[in-house]
Backbone:
């Protein structure tokens, strides 16, 4: 991913965070966050999130289990990915090794990766059949919103307000 693409993808996430902030009337966490996960742990957790995404997307493409007439139900397509994101943004009691801390920076990196992937899909760089790419775009775009909701610790009421404003 080139510097121009990297800048564009960060701008996509920052714009979505600004929209969420404006619609809810409150500040959102900074992107990227201040707290940093050690590099080797960060990379491992990011790769796990990416692999879960790829595996769950491949399963949906193979089975079509979570699709309805209006498209895929993103929460059902990516249950493992969203569970990992939930775990990464939730702090737990810290162990003596430092385990249990929030890893919001990993989620920010995953959001950047998803935005870069979305950019590649929209520009045709990702390749694939047009219909499959269109489904992939819709699913990935919706997943970005769901991850942002978790990244920002939004309540169910706040999510409902955002979703109502989108429709």
Residues:
């Amino acid at each position: 991913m080139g510097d121009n693409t990297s800048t564009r993808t960060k701008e996509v996430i920052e714009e979505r965070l600004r929209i969420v902030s404006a619609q809810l009337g409150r500040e959102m966490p900074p992107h990227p966050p201040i707290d940093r996960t050690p590099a080797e742990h960060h990379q491992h957790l990011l790769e796990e999130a990416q692999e879960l995404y790829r595996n769950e997307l491949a399963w949906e493409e193979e089975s079509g289990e979570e699709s309805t007439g209006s498209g895929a139900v993103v929460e059902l397509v990516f249950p493992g990915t969203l569970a990992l994101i939930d775990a990464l943004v939730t702090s737990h009691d810290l162990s003596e090794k430092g385990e249990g801390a929030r890893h919001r920076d990993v989620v920010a990196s995953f959001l950047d990766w998803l935005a870069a992937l979305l950019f590649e899909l929209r520009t045709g760089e990702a390749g694939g059949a047009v219909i499959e790419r269109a489904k992939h775009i819709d699913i990935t775009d919706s997943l970005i919103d769901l991850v942002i909701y978790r990244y920002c610790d939004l309540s169910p009421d706040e999510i409902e307000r955002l979703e109502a404003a989108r429709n």
The beta strands are 67-68, 71-72. The longest strand covers residues 67-68. The chain has a mean pLDDT of 85. The chain is about 70% helix and 0% strand.
